[in-house]
Amino acid sequence: MNETIITLSTGEQIRTEAPEQQLLEHITNNQGMMNKAFVVIGDVHIATAHIVKIESTVEENKRPDQLEQTDNSVSSKQIEQIDQVVTPNQFELLEQELLEAMQTRDIFALDTFLHDDLVFINHEGSYVTKEMDLEAHRTLAVRYTKVSSTDLQIKPTKDGAVTISCIRLEGQEGDEKISGDFIYTRVWQLIGEQYQVIAGHCSML
After folding, report:
1. pLDDT, tens only, 135-147
2. For residue 151, what are the CA distances in angstroms to 49, 101, 156, 182, 201?
3. pTM for this predicted structure
4. How far apart are CA 7 and CA 5, in angstroms?
5. Which whole-number Å values give the CA distances from 149 to 6, 32, 170, in the listed order?
6. Neighbours of 167 (CB within 10 A)
7. DSSP for 66-121?
8. For the chain, what percent of residues have pLDDT higher than 90?
9. Residue 152: which of 203, 95, 202 has the closest Cα?
């Protein structure tokens, strides 16, 4: 039986027979952003705002590590690689949710997506930590009215991905108005059961 595993930000995993593509279609709206409402698919009730990973499993009775030793061409390393396969769609959704969290000042979501030891260099060349970023949103030192992305590129890595995108930012930072296009590079890495941004950089166009 094929299964799709939904990993939440809490670390909880939900298993369903619904295909991965069906899930992706249900949890995004017409603009490609994650729906904030709860979604029911079959017997699965999920909060889409907290999804960090969706992956399909290999049919149990056909998994390479459960077959009789009749095909020696499948090595243990190849089996490990099969288990770790991720799709670009997962990081596209993560990027969309992160941008939405920036615009809505969703501190919980930002805390979930950013690694505690985040290293980020902003367009002015300043070093920004996770706590500095969260504090800016908590105190309204930074207020975004528009955060939109175009030309997203996803470069998968062994345990995550590097994303590069052009992001339009509008809002206020202190007494300064924010309005411009920025190139963001983020390094996503699997930490435990969830993907987090461990490093990033942005430049103003």
Report:
1. 999 999 999 999 9
2. 23, 20, 16, 12, 16
3. 0.60
4. 6
5. 25, 11, 12
6. 21
7. GS-TT-TTS-HHHHHHHHT---HHHHHHHHHHHHHHHHHT-HHHHHHHEEEEEEEE
8. 50
9. 95
